[in-house]
């Protein structure tokens, strides 16, 4: 049985929705495979220096973002819900194995729906425990950053899933 997701609350949540010209199965593949995710997951000139994914509830979801100055920003959490080609829910509120994290910031879910064989409805939602964290995330550039990442992901898939830089 598919668990219901909470309806986004504009006081706490940020939502990015797009219709993109790539198949659901390839979006799923590049979101769940470290060798692919590292090529598009950060807005350039940032990059991903490390990535470990164990795509199952309680499995590790870890990326380390590398700034243009060479400073690393690790992000570690776990997956909460995984429905292949439909939904991916992950959080930094819990660490792998559902161990509580010391400094939680947000939970996110990705929802994918086919709009045909080569087109996908892509919805990414970041949910926060406080209005302060939602505001902070928006000020960090949620819409520009996550939007740029979607464009990079589509370019990566349409380019044959080969590194461009």
Report strand %.
Answer: 35-45%
Numbering strands along the chain, what is their spatial order in the largest sheet?
A: 1-9-8-5-4-3-2
Distance between the termini: 42 Å
Order of helices and strands: EHHEEEEEEEEHH
As for the number of domains, it is: 1
Quantity of strands, as a count: 9
CATH superfamily: START domain
Any idea what the shape is? Answer: globular
How many DSSP H or I helices?
4
CATH architecture group name: 2-Layer Sandwich
Q: What structural class should be given to the helix and strand makeup? A: alpha+beta
Provide a concise account of the structure shown.
The chain is of the alpha+beta class. 24% of the residues lie in helices and 36% in strands. Pfam families: AHSA1 (PF08327).
Key descriptive features of the protein:
165 residues, alpha+beta, Alpha-D-Glucose-1,6-Bisphosphate, Chain A, domain 4, 7-stranded antiparallel sheet, two-stranded antiparallel ribbon, 4 helices, 24% helix
Description:
With 165 residues, this protein is of the alpha+beta class. The chain has a single domain, classed as START domain (Alpha-D-Glucose-1,6-Bisphosphate, Chain A, domain 4). Helix content is 24%, strand content 36%. It contains four helices and nine strands; from the N terminus they run E-H-H-E-E-E-E-E-E-E-E-H-H. The strands form two sheets. The protein has a seven-stranded antiparallel sheet with strand order 1-9-8-5-4-3-2. It has a two-stranded antiparallel sheet with strand order 6-7. The chain is globular. InterPro entries: ASHA1/2-like_C, START-like_dom_sf. Belongs to the AHA1 family.
